[in-house]
């Protein structure tokens, strides 16, 4: 659901507003509150961040963040997972991770929830690609499909045991089945 403001506000004004729970995104002058993540969504988000960070954090290659606000190109969005190459991560004066990420992610991952607007989610992925993101995933747990978005190409459909493309900076092998098997309890 969009909150249309009259008169419209700017991105800078939006960023001064208090945060909401769940977070709100600023897209084309409108404010959209994200839906509250549910079980499957949360599990996939957690496992994806974990899998990526397991191979990328210690060697300082990249880092995956869940629900991180990224503000760029006159939008402020909150991808389900944002992956940044290490050299692009903003740090503050104390050498800690910055609170504000005013840059596009290198890889954006969205996990579709039943009540989400698919077009809005795809538009966010396309916005990221337009501004420099090199890889986008749209994970659909109901259909057991992952759509992969690459700059200047049509989306690609991945199912079953197909190997998923990951950022060229990562050494990570995942199939669609492996991702969706995370929805089952271990043992």
By CATH, the architecture is named Alpha-Beta Complex
Which descriptor suits the 3D outline?
globular
Number of helices: 4
Strands of the widest sheet, in order across it, are: 4-7-8-9-10-11
Give the biggest beta sheet: 6 strands, mixed
Radius of gyration, CA atoms, in whole angstroms: 16 Å
| CATH structural class | Alpha Beta
In brief, what are we looking at here?
The chain has 187 residues and is of the alpha+beta class. It has helices at residues 11-16, 39-56, 118-130, 176-181; strands at 2-4, 24-27, 30-33, 62-66, 70-72, 75-77, 81-85, 107-111, 135-140, 145-149, 156-158.
Give an overview in words.
The chain has four helices and eleven strands. With 187 residues, it is an alpha+beta fold. It has a single domain, classed as tt1808, chain A, CATH 3.90.1570. The chain has helices at 11-16, 39-56, 118-130, 176-181; strands at residues 2-4, 24-27, 30-33, 62-66, 70-72, 75-77, 81-85, 107-111, 135-140, 145-149, 156-158.
């Amino acid at each position: 659901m969009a909150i249309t403001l009259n008169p419209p506000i700017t991105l800078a004004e939006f960023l001064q507003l208090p945060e909401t729970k769940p977070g709100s995104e600023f897209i084309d002058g409108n404010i959209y509150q994200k839906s509250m993540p549910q079980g499957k969504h949360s599990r996939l988000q957690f496992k994806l961040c974990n899998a990526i960070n397991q191979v990328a954090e210690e060697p300082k290659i990249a880092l995956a963040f869940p629900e991180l606000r990224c503000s760029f190109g006159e939008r402020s969005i909150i991808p389900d997972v944002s992956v940044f190459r290490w050299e692009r991560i903003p740090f503050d004066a104390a050498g800690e991770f910055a609170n504000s990420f005013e840059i596009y992610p290198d890889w954006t991952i969205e996990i579709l929830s039943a009540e989400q607007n698919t077009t809005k989610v795809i538009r966010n992925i396309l916005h990221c690609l337009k501004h420099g993101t090199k890889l986008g995933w749209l994970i659909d747990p109901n259909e057991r499909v992952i759509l992969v978005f690459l700059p200047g190409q049509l989306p690609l459909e991945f199912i079953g045991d197909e190997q998923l493309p990951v950022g060229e900076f990562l050494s990570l092998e995942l199939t669609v089945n492996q991702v969706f098997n995370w929805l089952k309890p271990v043992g």
